[in-house]
Amino acid sequence: VDLPVGRGVIRWSGSLGDKPGKFFGVELYEANGKNEGAFEGHYYFRCKPNYGLFVRSSNINAQLGME
């Protein structure tokens, strides 16, 4: 997927804690993220530190293919 902070691969989708709506867990190709797949101490997926990011579909600019 293409995001404002860079490109990556969707590793997870679903509810994120008590936040409303659907989220996507993205592993970025570069260290432009905010986490390693965890939110509030719970791992939803795993990746290297600062390569993970949780976003809503409105933040996804384009889906580029499948890995």
Topology, please?
Elements: E1 2-3, E2 6-16, E3 19-28, E4 38-39, E5 42-43, E6 52-55
List keywords for this structure.
67 residues, 46% strand, mainly beta, globular, four-stranded antiparallel β-sheet, single chain, two-stranded antiparallel ribbon, 6 strands
Please report the total strand number as a whole number. Answer: 6
Indicate the radius of gyration in whole angstroms. Answer: 11 Å
**What percent of residues adopt helix (DSSP H or I)?**
under 10%
Question: N-to-C SSE series?
Answer: EEEEEE
Q: Could you tell me how far the N terminus lies from the C terminus, measured between alpha carbons in angstroms?
A: 10 Å
Strand content: over 45%
Q: Tell me the overall shape.
A: globular
Write structural notes for this entry:
- With 67 residues, the chain is an all-beta fold.
- Helix content is 0%, strand content 46%.
- The strands form two sheets. The protein has a four-stranded antiparallel β-sheet with strand order 1-2-3-6, with no helix packed on it.
- A hairpin with a 2-residue loop joins strand 1 and strand 2 (6-16).
- The termini are close together.
